[in-house]
Design a protein that fits this description.
Elements lengths: L5 H4 L11 E6 L2 E6 L2 E5 L12 E3 L13 E3 L10 H6 L9 E5 L5 H8 L4 E5 L4 E5 L2 E7 L5 E7 L2 E7 L6 H11 L8 E5 L12 H22 L3 E5 L3 E3 L14 H10 L3 E2 L7 E3 L2 H26 L13 H17 L3 H10 L2 E6 L4 E6 L3 E6 L8 E3 L1 H9 L3 H8 L3 E2 L5 H16 L3 H26 L2
Helix pairs in contact: 4-5, 8-10, 10-11, 11-12
């Protein structure tokens, strides 16, 4: 689907000294170069993520730490906010680098950056335009679950980076477009995730994962139809579940070529990038990248198939002493109780009166009653488990306020009963209220009084527009 005209002609001076380039690092990371500007976006260069649950499908390319002028991070997840990447910039240069990050209540990311020598950390409010210099402007808009997207304007060029942002409706995407100041057809390049990135069922639930993968492409299509970009770059899904406890989750992920085909089915032009690829951000550059996309997607498909053939390494974990696990669980529950109001604490106990975890390596049950009492029970007793996981995975889940978020993403657990994953999801949400300093009671009221009516209207709108 082409959108030619005056707007497009504003940035077609290919080969001029002002032409920008996108150097793809891998997964969701890339560098934008234009004159002195060297903006690194979500760089993840080395190592595993999510408690040894993810690795990159293809090794990442490097950026030049001596040239970085700006860093932008979408959210705190380690495949986007990578501490090794942050520390790869020499300490003596960090005070010269401007970091842009969304304003958050907990200040965890900005505090970490400042404590590590980054003195130019800019917390941006929703829709705030930040001037990068040389005619480049970056506008950040937060999304649910702590994520954020941005619009990068480079003269007449506009790049919209949705990364992992999940929007449930056209109205939400339209809200983002208004916040960043664009209308349908005004975005040159839209970059967005193209496959699932979390726990989706037990080992035998392959069709469930295939369904989740199809739903992810439906989500991509909804974004495309709303934004109507000139080019679409599927990205932020170049990973594999890399632990022996979660490797089965790889069986349903979308192939890169499948994402490319879905983009084209909708009449849009896809560009696929491999780590180390460079794309000139001009008409000629976009066309060249689009022409190379079939070959690149096929090569990346091969990496996915290698994972499915068990040709890529998997990580393993040793058992954690049971006493250490119990100490960490009790400490985590203490943080949860002390981090919320009495009303929220009561609501949380009503939502989760009991949680039972089977430790696969110790062959015992860890039972939590009313988010307070913790005890160990034998298997095959009167109590049945909700989920099965390793002692390392459970300890990590309670060691950090984002631990259950990590567990949901890395998928290092199995349901022991139908619906057992709801325990993990509930604890993820409860610790999330502590982390984000948000009231559970207020959130319930907002969902029922504001969000639910809006979604109902959105459904009616979609039904009316359906052919």
């Amino acid at each position: 689907m082409a959108f030619e005209g005056l707007y497009v002609s504003l940035f077609t001076m290919s080969g001029s000294e002002n032409t920008a380039k996108l150097n793809f690092l891998g997964h969701a990371g890339y560098v934008i170069e234009r004159g002195p500007l060297y903006l690194a976006v979500d760089p993840w260069l080395d190592g595993a993520a999510f408690d040894n649950g993810w690795d990159q499908l293809v090794p990442a390319a490097r950026f030049d730490p001596q040239r970085v002028t700006h860093l932008w991070f979408s959210h705190e997840h380690p495949d986007h906010f990578s501490i090794p990447a942050v520390k790869s910039i020499p300490a003596e240069r960090r005070s010269q680098v401007t970091v842009i990050f969304q304003e958050t209540a907990d200040k965890r990311v900005v505090s970490f950056l400042r404590n590590n020598g980054y003195t130019r950390v800019i917390e941006v409010t929703p829709g705030q335009r930040y001037d990068l210099g040389g005619g480049a402007v970056l506008t950040t808009v937060p999304a649910r679950d702590g994520d954020s997207c941005h619009l990068l304007e480079l003269g007449g060029l506009r790049v919209l980076n949705f990364n992992d942002c999940y929007y449930t409706s056209v109205a939400e995407v339209e809200d983002v477009m208004r916040a960043v100041g664009v209308k349908p057809g005004e975005v040159d390049l839209m970059a967005t995730q193209f496959s699932y990135a979390n726990w989706v069922g037990n080992p035998g639930d392959t069709e469930r994962r295939r369904h989740a993968a199809r739903r992810k492409l439906d989500h991509l299509v909804m974004q495309m139809r709303t934004v109507r970009p000139r080019y679409v770059m599927p990205f932020a899904s170049f990973v594999y579940f890399s632990h022996e406890e979660n490797a089965y989750l790889n069986d349903g992920v979308n192939l890169p070529s499948t994402a490319v085909a879905r983009v084209r089915e909708e009449g849009y032009t896809a560009v696929m990038m491999r780590p180390g690829d460079t794309m000139e951000l001009s008409n000629e550059g976009f066309r060249a990248a689009a022409e190379a996309t079939n070959e690149r997607a096929k090569e990346l498909d091969g990496a996915v198939e290698a994972v499915r053939r068990a040709e890529k390494p998997l990580r393993k974990s040793a058992a954690v002493p049971l006493d250490d696990v119990l100490t960490t669980v009790r400490a985590g529950l203490g943080r949860l109780r002390n981090g919320v109001s009495r009303l929220d604490r009561t609501l949380m106990r009503l939502r989760l009166p009991r949680a039972v975890f089977e430790l696969s390596d110790h062959r015992v049950l860890v039972v939590i009653e009313r988010l307070e009492d913790v005890r160990v029970e034998p298997l095959n007793g009167a109590v049945s488990a909700d989920v099965v996981l390793s002692s390392e995975a459970l300890r990590f889940a309670f060691a950090q306020d984002f631990g259950f978020d990590t567990l949901l993403v890395n998928g290092r657990f199995h349901e022991a009963r139908a619906g057992g994953a709801g325990v993990v999801m509930t604890l993820c949400g409860q610790f999330g209220y502590v982390r984000r300093k948000v009231s559970l009671a207020a959130s319930i009221l907002r969902r029922r009084l504001v969000e639910a009516p809006r979604l109902a209207l959105e459904r009616l709108r979609n039904r009316a527009l359906a052919p």
